[in-house]
Amino acid sequence: MGKVFAIMIAAGVPLTIAGSLLHWPSVVMFVICSATVIALSSYMGRATESLAIVVGPRVGGLLNATFGNAVELIISIFALKAGLVGVVLASLTGSVLGNLLLVAGLSFFMGGLKFKRQTFSVHDARHNSALLIFAVVVGFVIPEIFSMSMTEAKTLNLSIGISIVMIAIYLAGLFFKLVTHRGVYASEGNETHHEEVPEWGKNKAILILLAATAAVAYVAESLVHTFEAVGEQFGWSELFIGVIIVAIVGNAAEHASAILMAMKNKMDIAVEIAIGSTLQVAMFVAPVLVLISLLFPTPMPLVFTIPELVSMITAVFLAISISNDGETNWFEGLTLLAAYFIMGIGFYLL
Amino acid sequence: MGKVFAIMIAAGVPLTIAGSLLHWPSVVMFVICSATVIALSSYMGRATESLAIVVGPRVGGLLNATFGNAVELIISIFALKAGLVGVVLASLTGSVLGNLLLVAGLSFFMGGLKFKRQTFSVHDARHNSALLIFAVVVGFVIPEIFSMSMTEAKTLNLSIGISIVMIAIYLAGLFFKLVTHRGVYASEGNETHHEEVPEWGKNKAILILLAATAAVAYVAESLVHTFEAVGEQFGWSELFIGVIIVAIVGNAAEHASAILMAMKNKMDIAVEIAIGSTLQVAMFVAPVLVLISLLFPTPMPLVFTIPELVSMITAVFLAISISNDGETNWFEGLTLLAAYFIMGIGFYLL
Amino acid sequence: MGKVFAIMIAAGVPLTIAGSLLHWPSVVMFVICSATVIALSSYMGRATESLAIVVGPRVGGLLNATFGNAVELIISIFALKAGLVGVVLASLTGSVLGNLLLVAGLSFFMGGLKFKRQTFSVHDARHNSALLIFAVVVGFVIPEIFSMSMTEAKTLNLSIGISIVMIAIYLAGLFFKLVTHRGVYASEGNETHHEEVPEWGKNKAILILLAATAAVAYVAESLVHTFEAVGEQFGWSELFIGVIIVAIVGNAAEHASAILMAMKNKMDIAVEIAIGSTLQVAMFVAPVLVLISLLFPTPMPLVFTIPELVSMITAVFLAISISNDGETNWFEGLTLLAAYFIMGIGFYLL
Fold first, then answer.
1. Mean pLDDT of successive 10-residue segments in chain C (350 residues)?
2. DSSP letter at C118?
3. In this complex, is the C-beta atom of C167 within 8 Å of any C-beta atom belonging to chain B?
4. Which run of H or of E encompasses A119?
5. How many angstroms separate the Cα of A304 from the Cα of each of A140, B290, C177?
6. Interface test with A, best of C113, C309, C328, C331 (most A CBs within 10 A)
7. What pTM, to 2 d.p., does this model score?
8. Is the dihedral of CA C324, C330, C332, C334 positive or negative?
9. How far apart are CA A298 and CA B202, in angstroms?
């Protein structure tokens, strides 16, 4: 399987460059770029896995979330520069839904097919639950509801205030996890991972991770330019592209890693990737984009559309109720996937 | 007590037949039919209890939910045929509220008066919680919110899609509980029930269950025809009749069985009846009715009124927060009953 | 520190009397009264702590909640008499948010700075969670949603009905906690508190508690009269004053006691003060005010503004997800404070 992906990358990256120079048809480019991103994601997954063995599950999960969302942050900044506020909000929504329902769902489902019951740290699950409620149910709902009886200028001020608070809490949360309470809530099983032999050495893994991230960023940008034409051809609305297509392709790296980890029964890492990535999008990427948007002509308030917001809220409650006991199985994964599918139909028809 | 019910059935069924042929006044028929349904429900409860001892608590609970909801499904199909979409949605709402708040509330309360603390499987409670969130908070909320910016045709398509997904997840859930994870999460105490001696043998219990179900279905239909006239006489709105009256009479079987089980401290069965029946209504009866409605001139989208939807959501959150720890007492039952009463006042005044 | 507060009271109470007779400027009075209330609160906190050692944590927490909210009840009745229904609803909202986010947040944060992990009874936490859902998510949401399609007269009838049910459940809850299930769910650690020596004897503590309450009530009333002028001077809206300022000053007593308890690692009492006080406001103070308002020309329905209601709901879900595991740390406290701050910005800008 590794060889197939190597060939896909070796062919896909040059083809992407050639195609974008020679203006190949959008649908062709869409297929090439998607395949290349997925292949690159698999390498990122393997590199992250190697690193995770060296540095431990929490820092490993953090690394993964960071590399997965770096791509998204870069693309969103280009979109904000072009004034595409609605598309950015839609792709943030898609990231939250994609990580919480699709990535977690596939991990739990695929892992559950191999193992009857899979467990992960209950303390981490509850820590993450509280932050999901904080970020989505408080941080996204308050500006939405209050903006209904506010001027645009005040809505933007509220968005800026909330964004600063969220970034502060996100950083405080890292400080909590990695400094003041490092290892306090560690589940016993985690330490045994260290005895495994990583596929790649630390330096090689970092190098591959950086190279693959750069390549993903380049290919992803070409991919984004195909969306409009592909959307027209297949009858997809802008919202559907933002929420579903961008999210699936943009989170391919998380998908690959999380499922790999789940199938190796390393649920602490799989959950950290899925939920941790959601939290990073909601508490760091989204507020940072609000602040960066102030540099551009069209500022972005933290105000989603009602279907976007409601989808995120219901996804949070479902994910929490499923993950709160620190245990998963195939059926819980399927339920998350079904919720993603239901919302997908909704955004498709909208 | 058993003799009183036997007499009520022996008198009630012929009286119902006579009354409907001779067109007795609605209020008289309402009283006769209600009493007969309740008496029949008691027999269904005893038959189910006998069967539950033979086949175990989970299948027993499933049996009970099925026989309770079969009646409802049949009545609803007649209503759909008559184009009464609003009444069907109202009675689905009433079933969810009735099972989640009234049946569970009465069971916890009555059981709690006899026993200080009653426990049931925490794993089942969490499994059910996740499905309640999936069915009501995702499955019912998404079409409601998305339909606000959709054409009627698209709303119906969304409803059909969601219905198919829900039925699939409901069946997958049965497969999970009864096949792949049968007994995996079983609480230790359950097995001891098998030593009890059932009141009726397996065949006799099945016969009584089938006969009583048929009789309930017949009497319930006569009962339904009295609602309009009785409503006018007592000043009840159609919504109140659908949500409250239909739910109380229609779920009398569940009431009887669940309370019986709770008073015998068999909380696993009581909870399975109350919550399991809710799940069956939300994830199976409602979506099946959406699909069946396509055969009739007036199709039924999965779009409740806002008061109906909000009542169901808040009921789900209350029931989950009360049942999540696998323990109940009289006060938790009373709280559920109070929530039912509050919503009852609301629907009465609406 | 005790001496500083003694001097502040000795100076503050006469200054308040002098100032209100001589009509000193509002800002001066605002500073004097606020400082005096805070100093008095510290004495109330110490008196309550002494009593709590004598009577045990649950009754102690109840005492504290009662004395904290007695002040609020008295002020609200004066406001209702003046027809200020909006201000009363805003200050009820502020009490709920203040107790749930600010008092609990400061307790968890300050306590967490001293102790790595603090624990409290999981059973109490879940009992309280269910009641918070009942009071806020059912009791406050239902009249809001149903009133949208109701006449004013029916909305008031619904409010009256819900208020009576809520008071009944509140009293039943006390009966449950103090009579039928007293000690059933007690955490083991609680009993050791009895070995501590209280600062003041029982009678002295009661005397100080009563005197301080009376003084707080007097000073608080003077304080309330300064709000309008201070609001104008600082550009604060009436809603912001009601929700934020009244809540901070009005709950100073709870703040002082809860933080004191948290820093002594008596989390059962700290949580009982914060959450118990919220429950008392939502389930007792609010419905009692609805019933009392019927005596005045302008009756008060239980219908908050949408931002008020949404803030309370999100606060409840955040507080529950943080407190449900019976464990706290500084980061959880900080998250609650951040949510309070976010809502504060919202109400300030509204």
1. 83 91 90 86 80 75 68 79 85 92 93 89 87 94 94 94 95 84 59 64 89 85 80 83 79 76 88 87 93 94 95 96 90 96 93
2. E
3. no
4. strand A118-119
5. 8, 30, 44
6. C331
7. 0.89
8. positive
9. 72
